[in-house]
Specification:
Helices cover about 35% and strands about 15% of the residues. The protein is globular, with a radius of gyration of 22 Å. It starts with a helix and ends in a 6-residue tail after the last helix. It has a single domain, classed as TIM Barrel (Alpha-Beta Barrel), CATH 3.20.20.370. About 10% of the residues have low confidence. It has about 260 residues and is an alpha/beta fold. Zinc ion binds next to strand 6.
């Protein structure tokens, strides 16, 4: 009997300790850093792999060689999409992606000059649409796309915003966040002559406040992390993407776009 009472007491104290632990769990700090914002429900819609690239170039420079996909590999990846029946759609069709057979989206961040010299001819070859997220303050600077190149790519490429100066948005005041989002949209619309309604959070840095300001100006926003596959019905301000890095083999590419480990 004593043993049984002792056991009951032990179980009771463990349950209490457990729930106390939950209640006492510290709240996330309010420090300016990315906050994990969960999707409301498990994915049930149509899978839309949203690929993202930076540079398409064999001329490597800077500290991140993985950001430079070889033009040859990029060509192979596009050929893979074509021969495997993917329909490359534009970002603003993402919510209607269920209309298409095996929809996929191609995006580029930062607006590097090689997107015109190296990526665009390959996009032309396959007649694939793409979206380039421009840093408006760097348009026309050495190494970045200029107005003329942007004009020439309009038949296949949609130009969207990656802010004015590529800051960590969560570290800015609300006023500066507003400036980065509104000003870049205005400048890119003036250059491209079309509506800019999507944002790529620079360095994948966002929190609830950034999302709230984004909603004022944009219909969509894309992430860097967490990487993964977007499904129709997911939050349009938390669009997951798949980072395509230099080292990725074509076998890895085929797995990645199907959401499989590479
Ligand atoms: Zn960027």
């Amino acid at each position: 009997m004593v043993k049984r009472v002792a056991l009951l007491l032990l179980i009771l104290s463990l349950i209490l300790a457990g729930s106390w632990g939950c209640l006492r769990r510290p709240k996330p700090a309010d420090a300016p850093r990315p906050v994990k914002i969960e999707q409301a429900a498990p994915a049930t819609g149509v899978a839309v792999p949203v690929l993202y690239y930076h540079l398409i170039d064999d001329h490597l420079y800077g500290p991140y060689p993985s950001m430079f996909v070889s033009p040859k590999e990029f060509d192979k990846q596009m050929a893979y999409l074509k021969s495997n029946g993917y329909t490359v759609i534009s970002l603003d069709e993402i919510e209607q992606a269920a209309r298409y057979t095996k929809p996929a989206i191609i995006t580029f961040d930062d607006g590097y000059a090689d997107n015109y010299t190296n990526a665009y001819p390959i996009l032309k070859k396959y007649n694939f649409k793409a979206t380039i997220f421009l840093i408006s303050g760097l348009i026309g600077k050495p190494g970045y796309l200029n107005k003329e190149e942007i004009g020439k790519m309009q038949d296949l490429v949609s130009f969207q915003s990656h802010t004015v100066s590529h800051p960590y948005l969560t570290k800015l005041s609300a006023k500066l966040q507003d400036y980065e989002l509104a000003e870049s949209q205005k400048e890119i619309e003036a250059i491209a002559g079309r509506k800019v309604d999507a944002l790529a959070y620079p360095i994948g840095d966002y929190n609830r406040q950034v999302i709230d300001i984004t909603r004022r100006y944009y219909k969509y926003a894309v992430l860097m992390l967490p990487g993964g596959i977007y499904h129709t019905g997911d939050d349009p301000y938390l669009i997951k993407r798949l980072n395509i890095q230099r080292s990725l083999s074509i076998d890895g590419f085929s797995k990645k776009i199907r959401g499989l480990p590479t």
